[in-house]
Amino acid sequence: MHLVPLPALLDNYIWLLHDDDGNAIVVDPGDAGVVEHALAARQLRLRAILLTHHHHDHIGGAAELHGQHAAPVYAPDDERIEAATVRVHDGDTIELASPRVRFDVIAIPGHTLSHLAYVGAGLLLCGDTLFSLGCGRLFEGSPAQMLASLDRLSSLPGEILVCGGHEYTETNGRFAHTIEPENPELHQRLQEVSALRAQLRPTLPIALARELATNPFLRVDTDAVAAWCRQHGIDSDRVARFAAVRAAKDEFC
Predict the structure, then answer these.
(1) Domain region containing 166
(2) How would DSSP label each residue in 53-117?
(3) Has residue 137 been placed in a domain?
(4) Most buried residue among 4, 95, 122, 146 by CB atoms closer than 10 A?
């Protein structure tokens, strides 16, 4: 399976997966034109569309693509996603014959209440829940819900590749540095990110193990993040620590 991040809109990624026989899947197609161009350039046939949540920058092109290609649209059970043809839920499995791939569906509420992730082919397609060096804003869910969702993702194999929905890594990295300025693995990641963005190259996908070593939202149980929280008057449970770091990020940018 080949993975291609398609830049779209302001800073979104539409994820394109395809096999050697020309069969393709797209994830969170906010812009149908970007997908059509990529399919034509690679001579691919669109076989399925996966949606993680209802925000327009992730679903805006789904209806048009379904109309053009008759590809099923897998989506959360959320009436705000009108383009859905197959509603999926936590614990479901999606099995496709062309391309031959299987995805496990995981509910990860927080950014939105009906947010889903798709796990398969060595990939974590996680929309706006987990970014490199960051996580999504809590538009609908609570800090406890978001932390529980991130815990679920953190338990996945370390080699799985995180495919978030936006190119936010530089800004996220600057914030992460304020939380853990002495983290050597974070320093290395920031150097890599700077070099990649200087060449206009994506900073995703990234192995989950590297996020576990550098992403402050996955590290609320570490001594370093706990120390930062104590410096800011938070000496409580892990949900409070997560909420404090998320609030600080909201004020950071």
Answers:
(1) 2-215
(2) ---HHHHTTHHHHHHHH---EEEES-TT-TT-SEEE-TT-EEEEETTEEEEEEEE--SSSTT-EE
(3) yes
(4) 146
